[in-house]
Amino acid sequence: MVETLTLYRPVGLRESELVLASGCSGFPPRLPDQPIFYPVMNADYARQIARDWNAPDAGSGHVGLVTAFDVDAAYLARFPVRTVGGRGHQELWVPAEELAEFNARLVGPVRFLEVWYGPGYRGPDSPLGPLESQVAALLERTGGAEARLQELIRACPAPFLLNSGWWATRPTGREDLLARVRAAWAREFPAWPLPQPG
């Protein structure tokens, strides 16, 4: 059995969509102006970045999510831990050209743990329409049928992953439907739980 270390990474809307599109098997390549991939060493630091930096930021889609992932500990030993602020602000610096190898050393899926929303949050593109009317659209599209709900989650997981926390914090009067969404998600993607609202 491979010894692993759990790392965390705060991500915004687009990176979340790309992680999900990979089957939660890794992180997308860095952009040309991003020479380093920065996983962080603890959930509190990731939470702080997701809440205080990503959620208010338009470039992050006004959403911050905390991801967790397990990596081969022997492989990680090649990257020194860097303290970039206070004692709890520790991260690894993985050169962009090594990210594919880093992803290959993940043991299990990337998991989305928590989510924070900024006031400008509008969510990903969705066949369910605008964010504010998605719960009603979901009920209309599925007619309450579990098979249709499951099919919709399978066909377009991003709105469910990214919006479930937002839906849960808004009074919809449809808590029963949201509970069914959570149950259907767990059946479809048991290794990738929906994130909890922060």
Strands, helices and their partners?
Layout: E1 4-11, H1 13-21, E2 36-37, H2 43-54, E3 63-72, H3 73-76, E4 81-83, E5 90-92, E6 94-95, H4 99-104, E7 111-117, H5 134-142, H6 146-155, H7 157-168, H8 175-188, E8 196-197
Parallel strand pairs: 7-8
Antiparallel strand pairs: 1-3, 2-6, 3-7, 4-5
CATH topology of the largest domain: ADP-ribosylation fold
Helix content range of the residues, please? 25-40%
In round numbers, the mean pLDDT is 92
CATH architecture of the largest domain: Alpha-Beta Barrel
Main sheet overview: 4 strands, mixed
Cα-atom radius of gyration? 17 Å
Distance between the termini: 33 Å
Quick overview of this protein structure:
The protein has 198 residues and is α+β, with helices and mostly antiparallel strands.
Q: How would you describe this protein?
A:
- This protein is an alpha+beta fold.
- It folds into two domains: 114 residues, ADP-ribosylation fold (Alpha-Beta Barrel), CATH 3.20.170; 67 residues, no CATH class.
- Helix content is 38%, strand content 19%.
- The protein contains eight helices and eight strands; from the N terminus they run E-H-E-H-E-H-E-E-E-H-E-H-H-H-H-E.
- Helix 7 packs antiparallel against helix 8.
- The protein starts with a strand and ends with a strand.
- The mean pLDDT is 92.
